[in-house]
Amino acid sequence: MDRSVDxxxxxxxxxxxxxxxxxxxxxxxxxxxxxxxxxxFAVRVEAAAGHALRLEALDSSGLTLMSVHPSAxxxxxxxxxxxxxxxxxxxxxxxxxxxxxxxxxxxxxxxxVANMEKVQRALFEHLWQEDDPLPPLEERxxxxxWFDPQIVESDPVETLRELAVEKQWAVxxxxxxxxxxxxxxxxxxxxxxxxIMGTNACPVEIRRPTFAQELHxxxxxxxxxLVDNLVERVKAAPxxxxxxxxxxTGVNQEHPLLKAxxxxxxxxxxxxxxxxxRHGHGTxxxxxxxxxxxxxxxxSSDSVVLTHGLESxxxxxxxxxxxxxxxxxxxxxxxxxxxxxxxxxxxxPPRARVFSMAVTDQSRDGKNGVDGAPTLWSAALDALAAxxxxxxxxxxxxxxxxxxxxxxxxxVVSTGNIWGLTPQRIRNPQGILDHLTMxxxxxxxxxxxxxxxxxxxxxxxLIGIPEDSSFAGFRPLAAPGQxxxxxxxxVALTGTPVxxxxxxxxxxxxxxxxxxxxxxxxxxxxxxxxxxxxxRQISSANATSSATAKAAHLAAxxxxxxxSLSPEAVRGLLVHEARWTPAMMGDGLYTNSGRPKxxxxxxxxxxxxxxxxxxxxxxxxxxxxxxxVTLIVQSQLIPFQRDKSGxxxxxxxxxxxxxxxxxxxxxxxxxxxxxxxxxxxxxxPNPGRxxxxxxxxxxxxxxxxxxxxxxxxxxxxxxxxxxxxxxESDTPSHASAFEGDKNWLVGPQNRxxxxxxxxxxxxxxxxxxDCGVLAVHPSGGWWKSHNRTDxxxxxxxxxxxxxxxxxxxxxDLYTPIANKLDIPILDAPAARNEVNTHLPVQTEISx
Length: 847
Description:
Strand content: 15-25%
Number of helices: 23
Mean pLDDT: 84
């Protein structure tokens, strides 16, 4: 709501501030050499306390919105706006019109002016986008500069390079284009960089850069006999089988347990380096990605038939670029993805691929992780996952063109670790043993906040104590089924749209000495894997690294079991088939019907933001049990289309009729059943920090699901969903509630974050028999608000997964569903093939 003010005095203050900002900008501009002088200047517009700026009004009539800082605590919202000198008069007149009335008696230009409190020239400090304080400006350091190429006609990066020659600044050799932003890095003091505010190289945002770093691992004693025995029992997957592409420190290509499954000789995107693994972390990740926990195959005498292979691209090796030109994680990752795909084109039949990256920005450890906002790295991963082409030029990496659903990528990333580079023994002088509190206060690290990736945290079931007498009196820090002591969470990110991790996998434990001053990450409480050295072919790994590699392993198994599933569907499947352990929920937190007693918000904060949706069960991922059937539909819809007036509106929803056995459900009557629904899709990112509301949304589009309420007609259901979708278009963090929301475990208010939505409906079998229809529909996004001619009318792909479970009764649901879908009944009801996984009825409804 617009506030009420003394309009004449308000106008006078704002116009005076604008004119002073222009005069100060002219003075700064006069010290800039003529070829580089800016055609405009940046102003900071501060909102009145408790009010929001009208971003649409600021981004119009020749003005360009640069960035938005949301209100926080006592700090009001503010926005940076680029004002061409030739538009200053127009902007002044619009402000002055606020003192006048429309014919209807309302103030003119109220949407633009009413909620403004202050207008001033934007300073270098105002461009800083991080939560932590601006570094000392007198110190020479690397800065990450974000540009909007539409502000000026010339290339801002080229202008910066030319200025850098004169100023003796170092500029990164490679720039990155993501969405509508161009990002590069410069080494200089902040005081020196103030000069760019008056140039055509004025950035719209300034951030702390995140450069690739090396990782270390802990090795274990050599056991040649075990390795040689296992090699004889292993059968590698065929060349066209799915592969896990490990983005890490390279891989030991001659390791006897990896060699037969490694496609090619491995690749490296680091100039001057080979694909060999000097540090061991990549080889450890490769072993887990291929075998899971290697302890089982090593100790068994059974044959091991692999269903997927390995690829390796080295993105870490000590120094990742020359000291003068460090390379960003975004650039290195984009190059690695392109390298893997290009090399695979000429190496044999096409194969499904899972990218596994147990690498996060550990330089932010002291800054307590991310604040939830998108970064260059996370936005690059979102674009890559959505199927954006990657093109390398001499001076930049570009993520170009619209996303291609047929080229989408499954990227698995870790949440990051509390302990950083973990030695085997950790001193604990302060006696910090409440590891859950410690994990909850340690926010996820970049780029784990990306929407389209599968973000993996760590839990543990490993509680063994070594037989070595030196470990007498030691105990495991985490109880079995709890969060691993290494894992970061998003508990401290409450109030942001980031809800990570998506799942957790085994990440090992820590052992505590009797004096509680020493923590030990012994191999007994770690995951067994392959080692890089000839004399240490068996190693161990832990933390979110091993958890990420295990998730990639499971995703590759799913790709092999269901070759037709898309990356979106496989990501959704792992989350859909994840469950919380009793330790994650605590004692006595379930009702007799199996539903958590926790309130929705408490469940989100204490469980989902810590564990995601739990641990994926391999058997559930790869098969349906007789009383717990999972169905999958892969489809696409057009989220936005033009109306007759040329505007953009929501285009269509799709209805899916559920093939549930109504007779069996009605026989169960009041028995509790659980309907689990997961919707997985990829968005195109809009990474600039322009806010997260309205047309300045980060996501290109948002999809939602809803179920018909018991007794509700299909027409009534359609009308309700249409109204709800329209209401949500400009408020992505909220969703309309209706009576049936009480049946959902977390509800639409909590689940509609990111691009992966999961929820569980609990109710009687009789109620569910009267539902029977699920809707998938779009809401808002920047494709709609930006009115992009190359995005409106473009279809998007999604995967919808639906499970029906009868936890308290032994009712065969598989057979009647198979009969209804005309699927042959196999001898083993637990076996599920691809045909079984598709819902039979889909109705498209245009709005």
